[in-house]
Amino acid sequence: MSEILAARGVELRYGSSPAVRKADIVLRRGEVAAITGPSGSGKSSLLYCLAGVLPLHGGEVRLEGRKLGDLSDGELSALRRDRLGFVFQYG
Q1: Who's near 43: CB < 8 A, 6+ residues apart?
Q2: CA 18 from centre of chain
Q3: Do β-strands 3-14 and 17-28 pair in parallel, antiparallel, or remain unpaired?
């Protein structure tokens, strides 16, 4: 099966505070994933990285083989509009 989403070594910091440390995830067509953890553990930050909303401080994210870090703002916006979606759980 081909990889739809592949993130390797994803790192994100807010100032000097690490939010995501060397995260890896691979999703293939037809797979469903849940990102779980306690409040403040970096779940939303990771999702924002996977969607190209936040720039990475390390690693890379590829969606359908395209490296998100190489895309323009317009290309990222179109990709998020047409190809990505995630649901936040409240409460």
Answers
A1: 35, 36, 37
A2: 16
A3: antiparallel
pTM of the model: 0.86
Residue 14 lies in a domain: yes
Residue 88: inside a domain, yes or no?
A: no
Residue 51 lies in a domain: yes
φ/ψ region of 52 (left if φ > 0, alpha if ψ in -120 to 50, else beta) reads left
Closest CA to 63 of 84, 46, 45: 84
Structural domain boundaries, residue 67: 3-83
Does residue 43 sit in helix, strand or coil? helix
| Domains contained in the chain, number | 1
Q: Other C-beta atoms within 10 Å of 7: how many?
A: 21
What's the pLDDT tens digit per position in 36-70? 999 999 999 999 999 999 999 999 999 999 999 99
Question: Does the structure show a pLDDT above 80 at 27?
Answer: yes
17 domain-assigned: yes
